[in-house]
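Exercise 3.2. Students should predict the tertiary structure of the chain below and write it as structure tokens, then compare their answer with the key that follows.

Predict this chain's 3D structure.
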Amino acid sequence: MDQIKTEKRKVGSFISEAVTYLLPVLKSKYFYIGLVSLIFGACLNFASQTYLHHSMSEGKTLPMLSDLILDNVPVIDVSLIYDLFSLVVLAVVVIYLVHKKEINRLPYILLLCGIFYIIRGIFIVLTPFGNPPEFPGSDPLFNGFSLYELGVYPSGHVGDSFLLLLLVNDKVYKYILSFCLAVIIITLIFAHSHYSIDILSGFFFAYAIKAFGDKYLTSFDLGISQNSKD
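Answer key:
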């Protein structure tokens, strides 16, 4: 009984400490700017995919490309796996922020992820490739997180996961996220959900956004801002 009470106190203390770190973040304007950018990026992606869907409904076609890797890989319906591991990546990052007491970095993370999805929302319209041949569609449980599975360049699964990996500073968490990212890439290829260029571009887009943020947007990283004041 005493052990149960001790564990409850530890959990209560952990939650109380997490709330203590979260409250200053919720009072910061940077948190809401980052949140709005992420919401806008998500909405822009949905709008771009809807636009492509309407274009196809009017009789337009999106070109399918030949791909050196996909052309030599059999189609295996493992779409549920890459969607699940994308959620695992998000869960791991949340645990990391709480565990390492870096919740004050949340505005920065939200902003960079928002920028990534804003750019992706633009590029999937600028480069409107059709889905790879033989792509059967994502598992209906998640359906690729989208109403319409259109717009492939760059890969949101890869780009967002790699960006979050870059934003984590702990080695153990980096290893976990790297494993998740590897699973996502492998299953994307076997499901023929993305062309090779989509996957590779996800890395480059994410790295460029992280580099840009580290140079010009550090005011959103409240952890850095706090350290500079100290």
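Discussion points: The two ends are 44 Å apart (CA to CA). The chain has a mean pLDDT of 87.
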